[in-house]
Specification:
Elements (H helix, E strand, L loop, with lengths): L1 H7 L24 E2 L4 E3 L5 H14 L2 E5 L5 H15 L3 H11 L2 E3 L5 E2 L2 E2 L3 E8 L1 H5 L9 H27 L5 H5 L2 E9 L11 E4 L5 E5 L6 E5 L2 E5 L6 E5 L1 H6 L9 E3 L7 E9 L5 E2 L17 E2 H7 L18
The structure holds N-oxalylglycine (OGA) and nickel (II) ion.
Keywords: Iron, Metal-binding, Oxidoreductase
InterPro entries: DIOX_N, IPNS-like_FE2OG_OXY, IPNS-like_sf, Oxoglu/Fe-dep_dioxygenase_dom, Plant_2OG-oxidoreductases
Pfam family, one: 2OG-FeII_Oxy
Length: 331
């Protein structure tokens, strides 16, 4: 990582360009790591228990972690490694790669939100349907497409399992959520060590505009979730995936499950590498509270909008106001 860090910011202090306003920055207050966000064992033979655990976690936190998910360790590690290789390539080379293949690379200074740049390198590209999306993936490192492709096949499988468990828990018909999960985006981030984590952020507070998001957060903490107005840190569980409920499942559940705001803080010593996969509906899919959930006693709390419309006009609707770029709409 040395190479990467020195190319990024070889600085003793956080530059002005990356200093967030007082209201957005983490400050010096210690945030507790939360050991109460549920860790759910997908190998549990009692399916109804898994369903109940997922629903409870999604109501209380909007977040849970899954273990025994069946994604082989070497597939995960392979993807982490090839992404690390990509992020250590010279910036010019990455930018050239991105421009010629049509994927998005956001380096350390290219992405500003609320007047400050995020303390991260980041890339983004579609990853489902796989064969078609792959045409636009990085060609360098040369093994990128094979290795990330294998990871995405596994994440697709896992996403359908989790969506089915959620569908069951909400009393939706079989395949309800899986059927609309037609688009997936991969976002890989690299958060370099930071001389003063109190001033800046790896990722500003946001909601994910997905059905669900499946995150591999490696072995360094940094993700924080807003719960009852307080930030809590998500603990690292080796080889687990962090799953969160996106705004689209909150809408379909008519608010029964919640999409929680979250952010990423940096740390002084270590680089942190994460791979998030957004499991999204297609841009034209109409998302609305499911018919089987709403009735006279439980009227729809959300409008009926295509995913694309939602992402464009999400501001006026209830809690989804503090939104950044994670719409991941396939334009
Ligand atoms: C995201 C996200 C968390 C992380 O990309 O939307 O919340 O730890 N990522 O990188
Ligand atoms: Ni997010």
């Amino acid at each position: 990582m040395e190479n990467h860090v020195s190319r990024w910011f070889n600085v003793q202090t956080v530059p002005e360009s990356h200093t967030f306003s007082i209201e957005d920055r983490p400050g010096k207050k210690q945030i507790p790591l939360c050991r109460t966000i549920p860790i759910i064992d997908l190998a549990n033979s009692e399916r109804t228990e898994i369903v109940q655990e997922i629903i409870k976690a999604s109501q209380e936190y909007g977040f849970f972690q899954v273990t025994n998910h069946g994604v082989p360790e070497d597939v995960i590690n392979g993807a982490v490694k090839v992404l690390e290789e990509l992020f250590t390539m010279p910036v010019d080379e990455i930018s050239k790669e991105a421009n010629s293949n049509g994927w998005v690379y956001m380096g350390s200074t290219s992405f500003a939100t609320k007047g400050a740049h995020l303390w991260r390198d980041n890339l983004k590209h579609p990853c489902h349907p796989l064969e078609q999306s792959m045409q636009n993936w990085p060609q360098k490192p040369t093994r990128y497409r094979d290795i990330v492709g294998a990871y995405i096949v596994e994440i697709r499988r896992l996403s359908l399992i989790i969506l089915e468990l959620i569908s069951q828990g909400l009393g939706l018909e079989k395949g309800y959520l899986g059927g609309i999960s037609q688009v997936q985006f991969l976002t890989a981030s690299n958060y370099p060590p930071c001389p003063d984590p109190s001033l800046t952020l790896g990722l500003l507070k946001h909601f994910d505009h997905s059905l669900i998001t499946i995150l591999f957060q490696g072995n360094v903490e940094g993700l924080q979730v807003l719960k009852d107005g307080k930030w809590i840190g998500v603990e690292v569980v080796p080889n687990a995936f962090v799953v969160n409920i996106g705004t689209q499942v909150e809408i379909i559940s008519n608010g029964k499950l919640r999409s929680a705001q979250h952010r990423v803080v940096t740390n002084k010593e270590k680089s942190r590498a994460t791979i998030a996969t957004f499991i999204n509906p297609c841009p034209d899919c109409i998302i609305e509270p499911a018919k089987v959930i709403v009735n006279e006693a439980n009227p729809p709390l959300y409008p009926s909008l295509s995913f694309k419309e939602f992402v464009n006009v999400s501001k006026p609707f209830g809690p989804f106001t503090d939104v950044i770029q994670n719409g991941c709409i396939d334009e």
